Fold:
Amino acid sequence: PICPTGKMIERWLWELVFAGVKAAIFWIWKAHSKEFEGGEWGLTDLQGGPTERSRAAGRVAAVIEENHELFASAKPAPSRVALLSDLDTHTLLLREARLQGRDIDAGMNAIFRYARALRRLGLTHDIVTTGSEKPLPLDQYRLLIAPNLFAISEETAQLLRAAVEHGAHLWVDGLFGLKSPTGRISQPVPAHLADVFGAEMLEFRKIDKVLEIKIGDQPVSAPGMVAILKCTSAKPLGAWNGLTVAATNQFAKGITTWVGLTLSEGEEKAVHEAVSGLLRPYAEDLLAEVPLAEMEPSDLLTRVMDAGDKKLILVMNPGDEPRPSPAFAERRILAASEGTTPNRLAPGGWLIAVL
Structure:
């Protein structure tokens, strides 16, 4: 927003702290009175005096100073979930979208929508770039999510194969592995990974209306394309007109799940409900690895930092209604937003606890 409130500043700063940043740069300290910056906010008022924004920044600094020993050693807890943003796919999507007059932002929108669903489940995640010259290792992740990753290089395929072999759960949707980075249809689909998924794509069909099916007990819907799958060793999870469109497979120590609908292209609320519902079982499993098992997976947002033998947790309520937070009733609270107590998070509120 052009003129954020002190409450916004305070929450933004805490999110940055829990992301591991060492400093925050504000756009401007004192608002200018002329030219293009005349209407923009400053941290101070026009006379250089304090505002609710500068006081909010001061409160964050004071909490960190009072708890210096905790924050000096604190580091963001390693995420066990990775969203894969693939350069080959984005490059091909951009080229084809411009030629065909489609949305050029579809690739990044897929990442953002899955990210929101993961946040609402209480799962922190990293966005990892594949398809680059120096791909990052995926060893630390237990859940890898590849939204709309339809162009796969052999190098990326090898990276994914190794992750599944070592016990990761690889989750993909849409026309996964349909093409090579040069835009050619792969043979088979997905190239280099058909045995890992225990399934191949027989064909894909364009749906003129929103397709609604059930995957297990979870209703899902999406417009656009649907992948028709042929299972070799995979177990079917969902069907459309008698054709398999979702499947899961056990491979080596890991698991793969392929949902043949491009879930991220639906209406945003439907995307959130479908993705959250499908991923919830894995959220419960992963939350048990950090001291959050007593919290029900919900739409609360969480961030965790390791601080020696302790953990710091930032819990945020993004909703418009207050939320109970009984898990923190007996915990040491370092800071909390106005109106928030250890038992109750105010609308838009947050708290920081020591675990």
The chain has three domains: 6-66, 81-287, 301-354. Residues 301-354 form one domain. The longest strand covers residues 199-215.
